[in-house]
From TrEMBL:
EC primary class: transferase
Protein name (Swiss-Prot/TrEMBL): DNA polymerase III subunit delta'
Domain DNA polymerase III delta subunit C-terminal: 209-321
Subunit description: DNA polymerase III contains a core (composed of alpha, epsilon and theta chains) that associates with a tau subunit. This core dimerizes to form the POLIII' complex. PolIII' associates with the gamma complex (composed of gamma, delta, delta', psi and chi chains) and with the beta chain to form the complete DNA polymerase III complex.
Origin species: Buchnera aphidicola (Cinara cf. splendens/pseudotsugae 3390)
Catalysed conversion reaction: DNA(n) + a 2'-deoxyribonucleoside 5'-triphosphate = DNA(n+1) + diphosphate
Top-level taxonomy: Bacteria, Pseudomonadati, Pseudomonadota, Gammaproteobacteria, Enterobacterales
Length: 327
């Protein structure tokens, strides 16, 4: 678990419970996207299924270690590998349950992992529930959810619940810095907060074109404000995907509103603090709030299939937003 240092405690906790025969057969994990839960469960499963495991690590040499590494272990049921669809239907659940009541093929434990238990249909959840009430012998379930309020109560009542949060910023930044030496602290902190403090999502964001696009967009805003030249800004706006621009503007407006209200430290675009202060000082709260609401409404329009001129609405939104940048 050296790869994700913020998960070592959870890894050791579950391993120790298994060694003491006190690990509950049904484990429900509430955790946000991008903190490494799939990797955590994968590492735990490697250890549990290993034929020659030591105190805290698998041997990496036995047939079980080989099979799970190749994503082909017959006693490790990862629904990500099994289901081709976004929603998990009752037929998949029935097939898994049928196999769980058979003897394990490697003679050890059987592990079932749902990377998103909320993706089960109601019929699938009800079918699964019957098995969770009285799990087959030597079988462990790991159920991950990003929103535990959406998990049906009967599943929650039969589970031990683990709450895993995004790591503290200093831990995440330390991990990100080792992988991104070209970025300074403010850039890393900005990327981390834009990705809701999820280090793995942040790393993907930094390595993709998204962070570069965001920085170009911010420079264009600076040019527009300082030089009264909107050509760069319009060039970026018309070149980028509307969803990307909309998300960037929503985050930016939200930061300005936050600064206007309480000047707290939850601002996402921390590398643009001077710009945020400048715009906050020239706009009333209601102007910013109404502008943000209109952008959120436009986000909803983008996700619909209504036969309306979305491009025209987008341009109108941009003109309204650019008024908030005037000094």
């Amino acid at each position: 678990m050296n790869k994700y240092p913020w998960l070592i405690t959870q890894y050791l906790n579950i391993i120790n419970k298994y060694r003491k025969n006190s690990l509950h057969p049904v484990n429900l994990i509430q955790a946000p996207t991008g903190v490494g839960i799939s990797k955590l469960i994968f590492n735990i499963s490697k250890w549990i299924l290993c034929s020659y495991r030591n105190k805290f690590t698998n041997c990496k040499k036995c047939i079980s270690c080989f099979l799970i590494k190749k994503k082909n272990h017959p006693d490790f049921y990862n629904i990500n590998y099994i289901s081709q669809y976004k929603n998990i239907g009752i037929d998949i659940i029935r097939d898994i349950i049928k196999n769980l009541y058979k003897t394990s093929q490697q003679g050890g434990c059987k592990i079932v992992y749902f990377s998103n238990i909320n993706s089960c249909t109601l019929e699938a959840s009800n079918a699964l529930l019957k098995t969770l009430e009285e799990p087959p012998k030597n079988t462990i379930f790991f159920l991950h959810t990003r929103n535990i309020t959406q998990v049906i109560n009967t599943i929650k009542s039969r589970s031990i619940i683990y709450y895993i949060h995004a790591p503290q910023e200093n831990i995440a930044i330390s991990w990100l810095k080792k992988k991104n030496k070209q970025h300074n602290f403010l850039q890393l902190l900005t990327a981390l907060r834009i990705n809701n403090n999820a280090p793995i999502s942040t790393q993907k964001f930094l390595k993709s074109n998204a962070f570069k696009q965001r920085n170009i967009f911010m420079r264009a805003i600076h040019t527009y404000i300082n030089e009264k030249n909107d050509s760069d800004l319009w060039s970026v706006i018309l070149d980028y995907d509307e969803k990307i621009i909309t998300t960037l503007i929503c985050y930016f407006l939200l930061d300005i509103i936050k600064y206007n209200i309480c000047k707290n430290n939850t601002i996402k675009n921390v590398d643009q603090l001077r710009l945020i202060k400048k715009i906050a000082h020239i706009n009333k709260f209601n102007v910013l709030k109404n502008n943000l609401i209109s952008w959120i409404q436009f986000q909803q329009i983008l996700s619909t299939s209504y036969k309306i001129d979305k491009k025209l609405i987008f341009i109108e939104q941009i003109f309204l937003w650019m008024k908030t940048l005037h000094t």
